[in-house]
Structure formats: structure tokens, C-alpha cells
Amino acid sequence: MGSILFPSEVNNIVGIKPTVGLTSRYGVIPISEHQDTIGPMARTVRDAAWVLGAIAGRDGRDNYTLASPHPSVPFYVGACQLDRLQGKRIGIPRNVLPFLAMEPHGLAVLSAFEAAISVLTEAGATIVQDANFTAWEEFPESKSVTQVLHADFISNIESYLSKLETNPNNIHTLQDLRKYTQSDPREDYPGRDTVQWDAALAVGINNTSPEFWPMYQNNLRLGGEGGVLGTLARHKLDAIILPTSLAAYVPSVVGTPVITVPLGAYPKGTKTVYNKFGNLVQVAENIPFGISFMGAHWSEEKLIGMAYAFEQRTLFRQKLKRYIEPHSEIAGLLQDRANGVCT
User: Fold this and answer.
1) For the residues 188-203, what does the mean pLDDT come to?
2) Mind telling me which PANTHER family this protein's record contains (predicted)?
């Protein structure tokens, strides 16, 4: 939940979290078969579109990819056109934004977000205010959101471990993994705790248990009719926008796509906030933040077009000084490779 969007946001780059099933998860250490998805993080929307086109497609080793409606992978780079915001209906779930306003650093993000709305309007989009997630107030308190993740993880990690060609420590279940982590000093336990695994095991079910199905159905309600899908349908929207720090949660439980694009950075004087280990800055002046475009399942092509049109009109990424500046374009590297040039 957020493992593409959040790193992309704070690194001032573009991230695409695709529809679950657009890209294969074969060989990836799993958390949840219902939520895991593999997507690109890149300097620009165009670069991310190139990568997405390369990794998308059906794979018999991941049966979720067989649900894709695309007989062949779309040419996502072709969606990178400046006019792709023209005529689009974009909704704002205003009832989500107060969660960010409660944070001391949230006002800077909200101010930049409101300014972005003008950019979208000037590009020809229609903004639908109060396109709210009707189940949002339930979402933070719903036990099913984490219980589904935990139940999936118990089943999925066991399946993953069973396919390893070598397993020198004989780790076959989450219980085995927890025991090994807690006993091997190289794992830095309890500094690096197992609290999430403990919680998963305490629930006592996996995703084949009878109790799992109603939990999963509740998630589909929270993220579907009460979340992204219901909002898109009720207001006849092409996309929904939110600050990226709020955008990962609801789409994750129904597996719908999200694209984050640079929006700005925290201003001078922002109080520094560290992670729980005290070794990673999460919020501080000049730390970037983003805006996210959310859509229905398999709507990546449409979202890429809108994200590209916004990116090119704002170019927020270029306004921050970078320590290392890449100079290669993915398209150029691909052409060099096709021509037999080593780079």
C-alpha cells in the first residue's frame, strides 16, 4: 500500500501503480495477491510509460494477469499528448482532504493542490467538487483493511517459500520466518520488530478461511461503491485527484491504478519529521510531494495522458535542485540497443 507512490513522491519523480493484474508478480516476494502490483518509478511520465509498456502483459505464472482486457499491451507512450486534459471530468473527494489538514505540514501540500486545480481547468478539464468517497469515514477504522492483508500474507508467503529452489534455513511458513527473524542477530530484532507478522498470526486465518470472504467483500465495498469506483460512476468522471500522501489507501483495496506526478516541495521553515527509527527524514523543507490521478481498472492509458498533460504544464520537478542529474532518455537507450550500440 503506497510502496510505489510514496517513494516516487519524496524523490520528486513519477510513479505508476498499475491495476492489479496488468503486470506479473511472478518471482516477487508477496504481501497480498489482491493488492500487490508491480509498476515503474521514473523521471518523467513518458519514461514511466515506456517502462510500463515493457513490463505489462499476460503471464500464465500469475493468473491475475489473465483478466486483462487488452489482447496486446497498449502503446502507453502514445498517450503522452498535451491535449489529454481537454474535456476530461476530474473529481475531488473533498471529504478526504481534512485528514491532511490535521497535520502541521499539511497546509503547504493543500495549498499546492488547490493551485493545481487551476492548471487542470486551464487545460480544458472540468473539475467536479465534492466527488466524495462515501465510505471514507469508515475506512481508517475498518479492521478488514488490515485483516485481508494479514490473511493474504500468511497464504501468499507460504506459497512463495514453497517454490524456492533452495531453502537452507527451512523456512516454510510465516511462523518459521518470525522465529528465524527473532533468533538470528543479523536481523536486528527487536530493533526491527515483527509486529505486523505478530498481528497477522494473531488473527488466526488465511485467505482460504471462511472468515476471509466477508472481510474481502467489505474491502470491495469500501474501495468500490464507497470509494473510487462509486465516485467515478456517480459523477461520470474520467479521473479523481488527491495529494499523493492520501491517494494510495482507497485504490489499494480494490486494485485500481494511480499515477503520482511531482507537485511541489515543503517550504522553508517546515519542521523536520523523522521516521520511527530516527534515521530517515519524512518531512522537511525542500522534501518533495506529489499529486495523484486515480481511475478505474485498466484505465492506465487515460491516466497517463492526463498526468503527462499536467506534468508538462507545470514541470515542478525541474524547480528543485538535484544532487545527481540523469541525462539519458529511455527512448534513446532503447534506440541505441536496437542499433546495437552499447551504452
Assistant:
1) 93
2) AMIDASE (PTHR42678), OS04G0183300 PROTEIN (PTHR42678:SF34)
Per-residue cell: 333: 537507450
Report how far apart, in Å, the C-alpha atoms of 339 and of each of 46, 72, 328 are: 21, 25, 16
Could you give the C-alpha distances from 268 to 6, 162, 273, 283, in angstroms and in order?
21, 51, 14, 12
Whole-model pTM? 0.92
Average pLDDT over residues 141-155: 95
